[in-house]
Design brief:
The protein is mainly β. It has a domain of 88 residues: Nucleic acid-binding proteins (OB fold (Dihydrolipoamide Acetyltransferase, E2P)). Helix content is 9%, strand content 45%. It is built from two helices and six strands. Strands 1, 2, 3, 4, 5 and 6 form a six-stranded antiparallel β-sheet that branches. β5 and β6 form a beta hairpin.
Length: 128
């Protein structure tokens, strides 16, 4: 699943226990009734939100999980978690890996001057 929105809050890393670390991100959706969605990043995923700042437009890939907890009075309570596993900034182009085609030359004289047919092409008398 994915959630698209604007970064509202990037919380600092929390060391929950000796072996468990988490970090929370809040994004605001862009819809008629914007929602503020809290997304948890745990363990090795906490670094994914290091470079995010409030105001960044992002697409967050998530998993939703639910669990049952029975309180001491015997009542069942249900909890949901939204866990992020990938984040993409949107609306910003990266320079790396971009292909920029050469400018198109529409001047027929320069095109003719730059073009030298090979022997194989000279033998080919097809008009296309």
């Amino acid at each position: 699943m994915e959630i698209i929105g604007k970064v509202k809050v990037v919380n600092p890393e929390q060391q929950i226990s000796e072996k468990f670390v988490k970090r929370e991100l809040v994004i605001t959706t862009d819809e008629q009734y914007p929602q503020h969605i809290l997304i948890e990043f745990i363990q090795d995923k906490v670094d994914l939100i290091d470079k995010l700042s409030p105001g960044d437009d992002v697409k967050v890939h998530i998993n939703i999980s639910g669990r049952l907890w029975t309180n001491p009075q015997g009542e069942d309570k249900y909890f949901n978690s939204i866990k992020g596993w990938r984040v993409e900034k949107i609306g910003q182009q990266e320079d790396a890996g971009q292909f920029n085609p050469p400018p198109i030359n529409n001047n027929p004289q320069e095109i003719k001057k730059d073009y030298a047919p090979t022997d194989e092409e000279e033998k080919d008398d097809l008009p296309f």
